[in-house]
Amino acid sequence: MDGGQDMAARPGAGSTGLIRTRTRRSVGEQAVKALLAGAALLSVLTTTGIVVTLINESSGFFRQVSVSDFFLNTNWAPLAGGESQSFGVVPLIWSTLYLTAIALVVAIPLGLGVGIYLAEYASPRVRKTFKPIIEVLAGIPTIVFGYFALTFFTPLLKDQLGIDVQIFNGLSAGIILGILVLPTIASVSEDAMSAVPQSLREGAFGLGAAKWQVVVRVVVPAALSGIVAALVLGASRAIGETVVILVAAGNNPNLTLDPTVAHQNMAAFIANVARSDASAGSVAYVTIFAVGATLFVMTFLLNLVAIRFVRKYRQVYE
Amino acid sequence: MAVAESAITRKVVERASGGQRTRDLLFRLSLLLCLFIAVLFLGVLLVDVVIDGAGFLSPHFVTSYPSRLTPDTSGVRSALLGTLYLMVLCGLFIVPVGVAAAVYLEEYADPTRWYNRLVEVNIQNLASVPSVVYGILGLAFIVRGPVDVWGLGEGQPTLLAGALTLGLLVLPVVIIVSREAIRAVPPSIREGSLALGATKWQTLWKQVLPGSIAGIATGVILALSRAIGETAPLILVGAGAFQLFDPKVDGPFSAMPIQIFNNVTESKPIFQELAAAAILVLLILLLLMNSAAIYLRNRYETKW
Lengths: 318, 304
What we know:
In chain A, 74% of the residues lie in helices and 1% in strands.
């Protein structure tokens, strides 16, 4: 305030008059900015916290178990006592990827189908009805999906469809996991396709293409980076899901292609150990940090890929 | 003449695209089938939970404590209270921090600076870190962390630790949604305010934030409804189940997803029904929150 009046009083003061003076007001503004930046910084601290924790605690683990033993050994029995205890993480990683694969086999066609329908075919009224329904599906807590897989879907597979599954099995959990990630794939891919400019579609129609040709040969390729991002995000969600697997897929990983037996993913393993009160500091207990670090690195890489693809389609059409 | 010509043209076009039209129909039908399957799963899931759980749902179920020994008369009191407390504490944490971060990124940050880009990518990445990893962070950093106030850092599970963990988990959601709401306020509003001599902060506080309050509130409710449905982080930070006492902020606590989870893993069939009834309570709570979000959006949304 004062600075302003000063300058007005001395119009010929020259360039020195333009130097910003510190007033109570400007100091307050700077303080506000610093506070807001601090809040934004908390997100970076969160990531740092996660990384430091994982490195710190898993280094304790790797002092007792060699890295090669962890990643190459195929016998996973971290909670067993004495001689039979073994820390080969391969079966756990295998089961994680296998469950994710089952989920994606379900979620990719269904999710893309829903996404394409809502973006390209649905009338505004239909979209207004079904988009919220898909969002409801996305908002249902995962424990509910776990309950559904265990008490409804597994019996359905066994009794109605005659598939010889165990009570805890990878098939039921994997399929329900697919339904769980379906909304992610549907909504991200729908966004990507809605961002494709109308002129591309009109151009294709003008050349005599049928609607399905426009969608499959013009819109989908034009939105490809967004669609890939949707798939990668879906995969990352499926890899990191805990409760559905914990409730419906059982408590041990299996190095097998058989979906009717128990499987366990990394996240479910971590939760299971934390729940079973393995004494803090024991090798079995620090295993959760080593497994957590592996899981974090896997999803982190997937997320970076997804972010890159999302950015690509934004740059093209916005 | 013109009429006859267009009729001929139409006929030719029709003949040429006859096969295309069948394919178009098939493609459309298969897309509809995908949508149908998704909706069917949702419908069957809801109906299944209602059938299994409706028998237990009563005021008594909400007000009595859960019990392993007398499942017939047990309820979800401690778990529901735990979830409500978690929601309040989590909200107190994420509203100021989330909105402040969003304001910084939208209004102050220069996106060409590397550190602002880092924050941005970091938030996007945090949004898809598995929830169980946040649980590990909560366990190692908050429950057994360096802080030692209000029961934090003592190695014992506390409600406050649970709320902070859930808060960190959903913070990216709040930030991302709030940023969109702030971005929707047109620049002319800011310019008008600044031209009248308001400082940047006054412009934000008196113009931009009130203008984006509907979007921000929606985002916060969305984030909270995600937070109270999370199970994995709470397992990690040590939330309990079947608790016969009300939760305390600096003491042991339970929560709805944890109670549901423990009911599901009990072997007697009656616990499945209790789980379904508890799921119904949780879903009703979520429904109320989402209705509130829709109401707020319609009531306070500003059209520019």
